[in-house]
Amino acid sequence: MFDKQVYVNRRLNLRDKIRSGIILITGNNESPMNYPSNTYRFRQDSNFLYFFGLDLPGFVGIIDIEDGKDSIYGNDFTLDDMIWMGPQPKVKELAEKVGIQCTHPMRELGSTLQRAIRNGRRIHFLPQYRADNILMIDRLMGISPGLVSQYASVELIKAVVTIRSVKEDVEIAELDKASDVGYLMHTTAMKLTKPGITEQELVGAAEGVAIGKGYMTSFPIILSQNGETLHNHDHSQILTPGRMLLMDAGAEIGSHYASDNTRAFPVSGSFTPIQKDIYTIVLNALNRGIELCKPGVTYQSIHLEAAKVIAQGLTDIGIMKGNVDDAVANGAHAMFFPHGLGHMMGLDVHDMEDLGEDYVGYDDEISRIDQFGTASLRLGRRLQKGFVLTVEPGIYFVPALIQKWEDEKINSSFINFDKAAELIGFGGIRLEDDVLVTEKGNRLLGSKRIPVTIEEVEKIVGKG
Prior knowledge:
Layout: H1 4-17, E1 22-26, E2 32-35, E3 38-39, H2 46-52, E4 60-64, E5 70-73, H3 79-85, H4 91-97, E6 102-104, H5 109-118, E7 123-125, H6 131-141, H7 148-151, H8 154-165, H9 169-192, H10 199-212, E8 216-217, E9 222-224, E10 244-249, E11 251-252, E12 261-266, H11 273-292, H12 299-316, H13 324-329, H14 357-361, E13 388-391, E14 394-396, H15 399-407, H16 417-422, E15 428-430, E16 433-437, E17 442-444, H17 454-460
Parallel strand pairs: 1-7, 5-6
Antiparallel strand pairs: 1-4, 2-3, 4-5, 8-11, 9-10, 10-12, 13-16, 14-15, 16-17
Helix pairs in contact: 1-8, 9-10, 11-12
């Protein structure tokens, strides 16, 4: 939790962007794994954390634009609760820590909302992703669960995206901490990598770094020798000499700010010539993407420049052919690079995507390009100082995609299918760093960059 003035200022900033009505920010509740008292690890809603700061279940925040009051609705713990949990603060005490003087028991939330409805006031709420909050809105406001998403306030969504996109100094400090934990997660796995162990052993070791500090992973770890499957959560294989291993992982620290990095490295500790060639192309695309990040540049244009680096590199080694600019314009690179270059990051590893990817990553100026691969770019809009984002190019050899394009002669003037088919079984390489856009350029988050050059990787892998 930050100093209470941080939350006061955030709510004032939000007030300035909403014309009238009541803003309803729902917190999360406990979520049971298999019976009510056996719950998953609690994760508070990020918007509630951002504006109201309380990292506990069972709260709802109200910002009343007209009367100027901020309120928290929630119930004090009972004696029975405290027998199991120990002494607990009152709701009023918790509210004061985030600069709120007005508190109410949860049973009064319904009358507050109904009174606003009777008076013809707009109730602004954000898209909901938890079933219990959707049902609460149905119960208290009479909006059918199937229609809740349609009633979410676009005005509020745009206001929240505007505010949360630009990170404050206190947030950047937390993001640096998260990146330092991510560094330890990745280097731990690199050091322990050797033929004969299972992928799951590395996942456990990396996750244990975060858990050992009282943290959690920012998403389920992706680690696989089948790196051509972009989000591969199967960790059952035994590490085999000659194969590449891809690891995409990050930490979520106590404040819930996240990191997100990807590295790919040879199981044997040394790159083969073709592994070195493909890796070098991806590394060049990563470094070029980072170099281009600065205020005023659209991330869509940076994505396309990274795609050109990939297309040029694959052309140089005979897998692609023809004019590189034409190849990228026609989307030929996407057979090998079928995803976007990156996304916003902060309290969520894909920051604010619960509010709608197009609201976060695009705007009235920059719209999504409707082309395979590039259509998956989550962030396209013009960068600003204070944005935090990932840069994550990759090259993958997906058997089904190669076969489909060859059979249908898709981009056949730009792809050497015989050469591409020779690399089926290679897997995939993705490299990802977390970047803060600064006044004149950018910097990487964290105190140290995870080993990324061929020399650095060969020096660390298998040396644990």
